[in-house]
Design brief:
The protein is an alpha/beta fold. It has three domains: 133 residues, Methylthiotransferase, N-terminal domain (Rossmann fold, 3-Layer(aba) Sandwich); 248 residues, pyruvate-formate lyase- activating enzyme, CATH 3.80.30.20; 54 residues, OB fold (Dihydrolipoamide Acetyltransferase, E2P), CATH 2.40.50. Strand 3, helix 2 and strand 4 form a beta-alpha-beta unit. The radius of gyration is 23 Å and the shape is globular. The relative contact order is 0.08. The N terminus is likely disordered. The protein binds 5'-deoxyadenosine and iron/sulfur cluster. The site of iron/sulfur cluster has 10 residues, from helix 5. The site of 5'-deoxyadenosine has 12 residues, from strand 13.
């Protein structure tokens, strides 16, 4: 492929993505932004002319990975330079936003540092980096006044049968442990018309399922064509009108934003899948207050009850943090009690990790020792795994509609997702890829299901 304004030679781009689903979406959009100036995908960093690390700042472990990867890339840059070539290295995403100047100082081999809100300006940054010729980096971590989404090209690369679509970005909640309000900025909702147009393009390119993304996705309040602010529940029902779209999901939600319209959509809209990731973080009212979650455990349980009334088979997932500053044994027991009460189908749990600049990190004297965090995490995870296994086992013998969207771990197998988000493997040929098939669940594993191939392989929504 010929590039414009780059000596007519295609350049190769490799993007390594860390963290959440929105980062994966953003990486695809960065590739879309760079395609018109001649960048084509590379298989790995070795064959690339430019590598972008799209980073995650949510916990310390995630953030530290960036620096070790930058060390490896430096060696590759030296090799390339010795052969008379050049490898441009860019750091994008939330670590870039939070630690831009620090990255430039710690890793002078980095050519470009850009935040999540400026990647529509990448072509300009690449041109500047080339002009600088490796001497001095380009830093752009603004929160620009122009909306990024207005300056992005249409999605170029098809995402396949299961696609992501960002509808909302940023967070105004300021939970005291979390960096997101600082790295992603204030809440912003894309207009309905843009989202519907993007959804139609995804479906035309083969998507059967769309997952609506946002850091606070159920705080969505984008404007419709008439200028009226609409909720996520309304948006889901609007998107459900698209022919050919079989499944809608959304993530990540906040318990305070589960409004009547959204809960009702779970009961009324068959395309909305019966699975919800609804982080609670803790079951202790005292800790929830210290986390600035702005609701108590009873509120969460009420929301769950209303959701289950609307959609009795709803599978729930959550995030938990153990060892938040000041968390006592009694607080942790409250978390265990909430787990017993809800019985999650799946969950993620983490040791509290102090993040620079967040209020909780400044609570010096109440930090929980690591050994105690580890102990609590093990106990919580044992309970969560028990519940996940029970949920999976209850599916054996049932027939579930699975969207097969990827090869399985063994040859002759495909893998996909049940309506409840479980990973399902079945012995199927590649012909079934990108289809929704009714399969009979034969066996439950700790975190996946094994299914028998369907008789006649009939399509099902
Ligand atoms: N320490 C540990 N876990 C965290 N999370 C967010 N910030 C922190 C932190 N400082 C977890 C929360 C959130 C998920 C994405 O990551 O559970 O819901
Ligand atoms: Fe972070 Fe809380 Fe916002 Fe979620 S709601 S992104 S945990 S500040």
């Amino acid at each position: 492929m010929k590039g414009k304004g780059n000596e007519g030679v295609a350049r190769k781009l490799f993007i390594r993505t860390y963290g959440c689903q929105m980062n994966f979406y953003d990486s695809a959009r960065m590739a879309d932004v760079l395609a018109p100036i001649g960048y084509v995908p590379a298989e790995g960093p070795e064959e690339a002319d430019m590598v972008i690390l799209n980073t995650c700042h949510i916990r310390e472990k995630a953030a530290e990975k960036v620096y070790s990867e930058l060390g490896r890339l430096r060696a590759l840059q030296h090799e390339k330079a010795a052969q008379g070539g050049r490898l441009v290295v860019a750091v994008a995403g939330c670590v870039a936003q939070a630690e831009g100047a620090e990255i430039m100082r710690r890793a002078p081999n980095v050519d470009i540092v850009l935040g999540p809100q400026t990647y529509h300006r990448l072509p300009e940054m690449v041109a500047r980096a080339h002009r600088a010729g490796g001497g001095g980096g380009v830093l752009d971590t603004d929160f620009p006044v122009e909306a990024k989404f207005d300056h992005l090209p249409e999605q170029a690369a098809p995402q396949g049968a299961s696609a992501f679509l960002t509808v909302q970005e940023g967070c105004d909640k300021f939970c005291t442990f979390c960096v997101v309000p600082y790295t992603r900025g204030a809440e912003y909702s894309r207009p309905v018309a843009d989202i519907v147009a993007e959804a139609r393009r995804l479906v035309a390119a083969g998507a059967l399922e769309i997952t609506l993304l946002g850091q606070n996705v159920n705080a969505y309040h984008g404007e419709d064509e008439g200028g009226r602010a609409r909720s996520l529940g309304w948006l889901v029902r609007r998107l459900a009108e698209i022919d050919g779209l079989a499944r809608i999901r959304y993530t990540t939600s906040h318990p305070l934003e589960m409004d009547d319209e959204l809960i009702a959509a779970h009961g009324a809209e068959a395309k909305l899948m019966p699975f919800l990731h609804l982080p609670v973080q803790s079951g202790s009212d005292r800790i929830l207050a210290a986390m600035n979650r702005r609701h108590d455990a009873a509120h969460y349980l009420r929301v769950v009850e209303r959701l289950r009334r609307a959609r009795p088979d709803l599978a729930l997932s959550s995030d938990f943090i153990v060892g938040f500053p000041g968390e006592s044994d009694a607080d942790f027991r409250d978390t265990m009690r909430l787990v017993e009460a809800v019985r999650f189908a799946q969950a993620y749990s983490f040791k509290y990790s102090p993040r620079p600049g967040t209020p909780a990190a400044a609570i010096q004297d109440a930090q929980v020792p690591d050994a105690l965090k580890a102990e609590r995490l093990a106990e919580l995870q044992a309970a969560l795994q028990r519940d996940q296994r029970a949920f999976n086992e209850a599916c054996t013998g049932r027939t579930l509609a699975v969207l097969f969207d990827r090869p399985g771990s063994r040859p002759g197998q495909l893998a996909g997702r049940s309506p409840y988000m479980q990973a399902v493997h079945a012995p199927l040929s590649g012909q079934a890829l990108g289809r929704i098939l009714e399969v009979r669940i034969e066996r439950a594993n700790a975190s996946s299901l094994a299914a028998r191939p369907p008789d006649g392989q009939a399509d099902a929504a």
